Amino acid sequence: MTQAWLWIGVISMALGSVFFGFGAHNAKNERWQILYTLNFFICLIAAGLYLAMALGLGVNVINGRPTYWVRFVDWFCSTPLLLLDLTFLGRTSLPLTGSLLGANAYMLVTGFVATVTPKPMSYIWYIVSCAAYLAIVYLLAQPYRIAAERKHPRSKQAFRTLVTVHLVLWTLYPIVWILSPEGFSTFTQGSETMFYTLLDIASKVGFGFLSLNTLHTLEQATEPARETHLSYLEHHHHHH
Fold this sequence. Notes:
Oligomer: single chain
Helix content: over 70%
Number of strands: 2
Strand content: under 5%
CATH topology: Rhopdopsin 7-helix transmembrane proteins
């Protein structure tokens, strides 16, 4: 079961890479090119790491059970790019972008330590990692979103959707960890692999599509030709 899900990961990420790669090549302007390129590398990194796992690399017996520690290599390389999807779309300031990337790196390093440390000490590191994640939640839900909405007043809903989807997907990772054999062992390693693979596909390929959709929304909101039409719609909407 584990093996099948790892190959599903390989195929999904490879297809994502091809799609985003062609998109980057055919992009109509630099903003689209940057976004497609970010998503291309996110999927490419994941495809390579899933291939390694499917071929039995990056897995060692740690604390008496086979542990795919190489996942953390994937996450450490790809999650900063996912955050750059967000900060690029929101035209986020450098200090806030740096804070997000720093908290993310801290969360993953401490999560890795939690994964390779024996219980119960691992739970201390898990709590530390979750604290770093809560910092990310705060940064995205508050300063990031507020600044992005201020810069794109017509696209508030687009940023709310982006942040909500991002946080829902990312919150499921620590939940899977704590319920998996790494934590309370409420399900098997095969199920753990299935959950992580599905989450990775949703948060990389799926989120890539959402980021492109968001840029489309932002562009439509700034097109001068649509201004009058939009203001009419908004005006009309308020009367209902």
